Amino acid sequence: MATTESADSDSDQLFVLTAVMLTPAQFPSVLGDDYPEVCAFLGLEPYAEGYGLVLGQDGSGARWTVVTEDATLVACAIAAWDCGMEYDLSPGEGSIVGALPGWPLALAVSAPGVPEPHDPKPQDGDPAPLSPPDAEEWGPAQRRLGADEIALQWAAWREQVDDEAAFAEPGDGESEDDSTHLGVRRVLKEARGYLTEPPPPGRVRSSFAAGEARTLRVDGPGWSMVARTDDIAFVLLDEEPGEVHPVGRGPELPGLLSSLDKLAERPV
């Protein structure tokens, strides 16, 4: 298991459990709708080069999220782990810009040989510990996590939408049924607005999909959209807990998705 120096007062070793990227193109959606919002939440400057977030435990078992400017090192570690390879993720002390108590994500693993994961004892001036959102509630974090899940499990979600429903794209003059209600139309209008007034970095992100297609993640105030550039889209709304609205191709969606993809942030 990789270790690095923790920023706590005892200079304990940090037992690394996992890591995530924090860049304009890749960041934990649970923390915000865009890259600057996530950086502000964590008290970081939104540098274009981004950061890596290293999640681990110190020798007492306390949860820590260490922020490193060596985003390339973290990206290499994640790529190796995804391939089932070992990688010693040990950011240099000079690259560490801070350590935040707690974890922003729920982890099912813990470091062997240390006490069970727990939040460190707060010191004067310490921020509140990071913690994953309550799975029993619904709000912006859960809405964004829902969109992430659809992106990861696209085939399973796509199979639930028949072709007739999938190609019923909302229009301003259509009736307000499940596919064309005001919330979905508002999302499409705001997404189109991004083409004339580009949003903050990270509001629109593009990643690989099957063939030549791309997977788009688009967020805005109170909504998230996940789409394939060669297929349909799904919309989630803060005001409709747990509901997922399919948006069919129709005559306008392909052009919108293609244009959004051109301005999207992409992983290096």
Give an account of the 3D structure.
There is one protein chain. By secondary structure, the chain is of the alpha+beta class. It is built from 7 helices and 10 strands. A 5-stranded antiparallel beta sheet has the order 1-2-3-4-5. Strands 6-7-8-9-10 form a 5-stranded antiparallel beta sheet, with helices on both faces. It is elongated. The two termini are 27 Å apart. About 5% of the residues have low confidence.
Task: Please render the helix and strand layout as text.
Layout lengths: L2 E3 L7 E10 L12 H8 L8 E7 L5 E6 L2 H12 L13 E6 L38 H13 L1 H5 L4 H4 L15 H12 L10 E5 L5 E7 L2 E6 L4 E5 L7 E3 L5 H11 L5
Antiparallel strand pairs: 1-2, 2-3, 3-4, 4-5, 6-7, 7-8, 8-9, 9-10
